[in-house]
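2024-03-11 09:14:02 INFO worker-7 job=invfold-0412 stage=load source=structure_tokens
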């Protein structure tokens, strides 16, 4: 008689196996890796963290707003040319966008490094709560100062519009 061989086609990797609270392996979710935590935290910091504009007016805005301004001014320079104060504004916005993006990346790296000591389940919970608090606070409360915007203080939607 021929022997029957059973092959388990499911993904099996011991250090990435996720167990539910009942102790059964679950294929519904995978643990949050350090790299994924760093990328998620970087994106949240980039979108929500209020950082100052170190010139023109007292402004607190997310880094994403500085990137938008830098890209708009770059498009303006490409279409209309650079004259007057436009090159200064272009350099100012790109400097803020790049320096603050690097600062957000370093902050996300430090937070992810601190979370590396936790197991995958608690790490995912901490990152999820941090994202919810950051986005909730940015969307619900007027924490951004945008004197060049439609309102002097606004929430995330007003800061990016």
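2024-03-11 09:14:09 INFO worker-7 stage=emit residues=161
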């Amino acid at each position: 008689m021929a022997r029957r061989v059973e092959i388990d086609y499911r993904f099996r990797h011991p250090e990435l196996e996720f167990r539910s609270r009942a102790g059964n392996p679950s294929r519904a979710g995978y643990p949050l890796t350090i790299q994924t935590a760093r990328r998620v935290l970087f994106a949240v910091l980039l979108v929500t963290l209020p950082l100052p504009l170190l010139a023109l007016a007292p402004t607190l805005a997310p880094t994403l707003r500085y990137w938008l301004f830098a890209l708009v001014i770059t498009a303006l320079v490409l279409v209309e040319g650079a004259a007057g104060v436009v090159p200064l504004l272009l350099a100012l916005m790109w400097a803020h966008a790049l320096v603050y993006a690097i600062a957000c990346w370093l902050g996300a790296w430090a937070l992810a490094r601190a979370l590396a000591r936790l197991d995958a389940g608690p790490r995912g919970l901490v990152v999820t709560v941090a994202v919810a608090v950051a986005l909730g606070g940015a969307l619900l409360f007027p924490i951004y100062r945008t004197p060049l915007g439609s309102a002097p203080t606004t929430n995330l939607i007003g800061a990016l519009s």
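2024-03-11 09:14:09 INFO worker-7 stage=report msg="DSSP finds five helices and four strands in the chain."
2024-03-11 09:14:10 INFO worker-7 job finished
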